[in-house]
Amino acid sequence: EVGADGALRLDRAQWVLGEYDLVAIEAAAQLAAATDGSAVLLSAGGERLNDTKLVKAALSRGADELYRVVDPALEGADAFQTASVLAAALRKIDFDLVVCGEGSADRYSQQVGLLVGALLGLPVVNATGSVRAEGDALLPQPRQPLAVDLDTVGSGSRGVVPEDIAHVVEQPGG
């Protein structure tokens, strides 16, 4: 719906997980299974994060837990604000790897994962096609082979999970 001022009104829109987030959740769940680890989700945003449909959609993808930082001030947060909140929360969580979606369906700035890595002082592997675990290392594929320690932040695109899974997450929304 368009408001009187010409701006889109999103207050009545039904929110869904974006494709990029779904791919990241699938990748995290697969990597956790391959390494006998656990996939713990972390999200920061406004009150919409309390939507039970969103919570169920996220957890139904194979994640073990979901942490949310809910603050009305984050409703229109930019990439740096979001990354700052996520990095602060990650400092309180024991993790081996952070998997971020390639971008968001609304802004697609592709900055949050990079900024989280920078704020945590961790190396970042960006725009990976797929990733496989081998011992204590992750091997991003199919671009130039690169082995990284588990203390890394990474973001990937559709190819990070097999096509038979990626086609399932081709759903509109964001």
Structure description:
It is a single chain. By secondary structure, the protein is α/β, with parallel strands linked by helices. It is 28% helix and 22% strand. It has 5 helices and 8 strands. It has helices at residues 19-34, 52-59, 79-90, 112-120, 163-166, and strands at 40-45, 65-70, 97-101, 124-128, 130-134, 137-141, 148-149, 152-156. The strands form 3 sheets. The protein has a 3-stranded parallel β-sheet. Strand 1, helix 2 and strand 2 (65-70) form a beta-alpha-beta unit. The longest helix is centred in the first third of the chain and has 16 residues, at 19-34. The model is unreliable at 160-174 (pLDDT under 50).
